[in-house]
Amino acid sequence: MPxxxxxxxxxxxxYCGWQKQDNTPTIQGSIAAACQQFxxxxxxxVGAGRTDSGVHATAQVAHIxxxxxxxxxxxxQGINFYLFNGANTExxxxxxxxxxxxxxVSDDFSARFSAIKRHYLYRIINRRSRLxxxxxxxxxxxxxxxxxxxxxxxxxxxGHHDFTSFRDTQCQAKSPVKTLDQLDISRVGEEIRIIxxxxxxxxxxxxNMAGTLALVGKGKWQLxxxxxxxDARDRTQGGPTAPPDGLYLTRxxx
Length: 254
What we know:
The chain is of the alpha+beta class.
């Protein structure tokens, strides 16, 4: 069965995350339903990683095995057609998911296990007035944030650490030890951008780091507080979990 690599973008606002669930709209479930309508049988959709409810993607990656050969353009267009027009698609979910690229890959390619690095963007809109166009697309923080202080604090977290203080208490990863390759913070006008890169992340790790760094940006925490939280290896000692609205999976490297 020919294998195809899909690159996917989606607005995660109306979905209960990536992973398929019964009687609940999910990204994986929606793509699987569209694939079944496209080729006439159930197709397993294997993603590079799970995104939580409300989290977005500009370049999530998945692979599928189809029962016969198609041109990659046919795969992309066919799945997109049923994502938009499928019988199981609710009106409110139209145009929320799009396959932006499809390519034929070798049978040993795995969207999940072949990945060597994942890249995330967390967006904060830092202004007093409410969000209009950016509602559900970014975290709205009204208190002034010092992005330079946030960046300095972020460098404490870069490297090989036990991230227990920055993972969800229900995280199912076997080990809390991860290597964070990049955690950069910059500002463009009202927008603060947090870029995080690593081979893999713990559940809620990026959102927990964003929430912690926002405390630094507000002047409520100092650099030593971030170091103390990291060393504690205790989730209760870390900062709050930032909302899902601002988080985007932007790239997966292979």
